[in-house]
């Protein structure tokens, strides 16, 4: 039987520590408010995905938040840069016996259950699935086998993340499917371009 795992990387919603680029123009309180809304959307859209779900927090496990502990397993991200954190999450998942693993963040107001379901479906035929974001990064990465190289030597939070990941996949001959491009919210212009009401 195929086992799917959905991993959701979230930051603990602490004022002054989330959406710092947004906070630089809107202030810490408004940035936290935006992030709380993004967490609510992420929890709602992932709750019924056909996968075992793991929420991985940046600092500590939030016992009482939008992610119902009856639906979501909870853990803390390991130390290191974003690439090391993601690499560990995938390695741990495959070691645990999962066949298809999809990882998302919590910055994308357009994320949907149907899109995540599609990502898992694509992994039945491809080694990887990736959802590019408008800023040159990605909002979703999925693997049907462990490919650690795609998390190495990446300049995270830059406009080259998506393209360098595709290059790494092609360099090792891995097959991949690209999902539709969506908008992550990191800056005030991202927020203005979204339909997120604050």
* Biggest sheet architecture: 7 strands, mixed
Please identify the structural class as seen in this structure: alpha/beta
Specify the oligomeric state: single chain
Strand order of the largest sheet: 3-2-1-4-6-5-7
**Considering DSSP H and I runs of 4 or more, what fraction of the residues is helical?**
25-40%
Strand share of the residues? 15-25%
Low-pLDDT segments:
none
Compute the average pLDDT: 96
Total count of helical runs of at least 4 residues: 6
Terminal CA distance reads: 43 Å
Q: Tally the beta strands.
A: 7
Rg: 16 Å
- Tell me the series of helices and strands, N- to C-terminal: EHHEEHEHEEHEH
- State the shape: globular
Structural overview:
- This protein is α/β, with parallel strands linked by helices and 198 residues long.
- 34% of the residues lie in helices and 19% in strands.
- It is built from six helices and seven strands; from the N terminus they run E-H-H-E-E-H-E-H-E-E-H-E-H.
- A hairpin with a 5-residue loop joins strand 5 (128-132) and strand 6 (138-143).
């Amino acid at each position: 039987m195929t086992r799917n795992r959905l991993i959701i990387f979230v930051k603990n919603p602490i004022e002054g520590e989330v959406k710092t680029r947004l906070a630089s123009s809107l202030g810490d309180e408004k940035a936290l408010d935006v992030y709380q809304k993004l967490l609510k959307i992420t929890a709602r859209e992932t709750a019924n995905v056909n996968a075992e779900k793991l929420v991985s927090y940046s600092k500590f496990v939030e016992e009482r938040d939008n992610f119902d502990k009856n639906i979501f397993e909870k853990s803390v991200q390991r130390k290191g840069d974003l690439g090391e954190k993601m690499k560990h999450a995938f390695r741990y998942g495959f070691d645990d016996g999962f066949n298809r693993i999809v990882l998302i963040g919590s910055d994308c107001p357009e994320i949907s259950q149907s899109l995540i379901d599609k990502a898992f479906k694509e992994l039945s035929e491809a080694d990887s699935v990736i959802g590019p974001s408008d800023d040159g990064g990605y909002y979703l990465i999925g693997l049907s086998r462990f490919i650690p190289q795609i998390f190495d030597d990446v300049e995270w939070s830059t406009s080259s993340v998506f393209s360098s990941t595709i290059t790494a996949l092609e360099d090792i001959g891995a097959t991949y499917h690209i999902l539709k491009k969506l908008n992550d919210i990191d800056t005030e212009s991202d927020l203005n371009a979204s339909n997120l009401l604050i």
